[in-house]
Amino acid sequence: MARRAQFTTRLGVIAATVGSAVGLGNVWRFPYEAGVNGGGAFLLVYLLFILAIGIPVITAEFIIGRSARANVYGAFKRLPGSRAWNFIGLNGILAAILILSFYSVVAGWTAEYFLDSLTGFGGASSTAELHSRFGNFTASWKSVVWTLIFLGVNFFILRRGVQKGIERMSNMMMPLLFAILLLFAFNSLTLPSAAQGLEFLFTPDFSQLTPTVWLGAMGQAFFSLSIGLGCLITYSGYFKQQTKLLGTAVTTAGLDTLVAILSGIIIFPAVFSFGESPAAGPKLVFEVLPSIFQGMTLGRLWSPLFFLLLLLASLTSTISMAEIAIAYFSEERKMSRSSATALTIGICGVLGTLCALSFGPLGEFTICGMTIFNLFDFVSSTVLLPLGGIFISLYVGFVLKRSAVDAQLQGVPAAVVGAVLFCLRFVAPICITLIFLSGLGLF
Ligand code: TRP
User: Fold this and answer.
1) CA 302, CA 184: separation in Å to the nearest integer?
2) Other CB atoms within 10 A of residue 78 CB
3) CA–CA separation, 411 vs 388, rounded Å?
4) Residue 75: closest CA among 63, 87, 90, 65
5) pTM beyond cutoff 0.90
6) What are phi and psi of 370, to 5 degrees?
7) Looking at residues 417-442, what average pLDDT do you find?
8) Backbone phi, then psi, for 48, in 5-degree steps?
9) pLDDT tens readout for residues 306-330
10) Does the beta carbon of 392 sit less than 6 angstroms from any atom of ligand 1?
11) Is 231 touching ligand 1 by the criterion CB < 6 Å?
């Protein structure tokens, strides 16, 4: 078999993994989920999940990926254990396709906002005007076109393969995004109601801790860290033997959380200063951010730059999702890289179109009270990712031999390995199951 590709540098590994983790999940989804779920209480629970479940599950995916050096389905075929574990792979591929479909719609909005901001949003300046502008745009055919263009760009990058496509892009993008987020955060702190915004984000109101908040925070942690569907299994198959898995897991989780919190620091002061509601849902960021930019010196410059960076951050995330399915089709189904890429992007093009239309013509079409867009998001983030998380944890906790785990975690003190394994055996599976059942209202 041909040698598999590998990421070339240490920076490349971090940039690609963080590039996968950091994306719309941090800048778009985190603020709106926090907004809907009560702010501070949500953040607190979210941080708990990152520590107790996130870091151990990232590490588990890395261990599986680098031991097997295969796509998410093939990994379980090669590693010890019953064939039933292969289902983790199928769950992952399905979830990746669903997420990629709705994610591309939002990435398309970002592309439109990049262009629209170059002309100052057609002169719209009040929040009411921006509000109706967003509504009109998402309901129009333009949003479908952007979804498809965005997927097309993914196709061209992915066809080029791991090193040239993925690694090179991530290296350039991530540091820039970080710098600009910091700048915006400082700017938001000078807004009139900044204190109120920060209080909303950082002061937990424990009465708000309902099962829905726990479920939402758990789904968000999985989504934001790119865990539960084998994305990091796929990527770590491209890591070198020297790459430190636990260190990379901690760095990834840390930077990802930092970007989410920075986004909160940007958004919430603005939400309160411009009289918006923090609970506006998926449209939150798109309606609030332009208002901030317009108040900034050189506003015309910042908003295109921001949306462009967000678009690029989305790209590094979507290529990581698509890679899951592409690696599967090419390694297990023996397709060429080009056909595997075309098939993956093609399926997402059809599903993505349905998601985009659910803000317009298909807006009335609901399943269990959710539009297609919301259904895809809910089923993948809140159901399939945590489900994958349970089984990935159990697999590394109980099926993989301790010596195999140690071989991947060389240099990590035994007590720390023990703690990670404890989280994987007990904390993660039990917490996820309980939250899942109570969030779904089953007890
Ligand atoms: N984590 C990315 C974000 O926050 C989205 C993402 C990329 C993802 N790959 C994933 C989510 C794999 C779940 C699983 O934008």
Assistant:
1) 9
2) 11
3) 28
4) 65
5) yes
6) -120, 145
7) 91
8) -60, -45
9) 898 899 889 989 989 999 999 999 9
10) no
11) yes
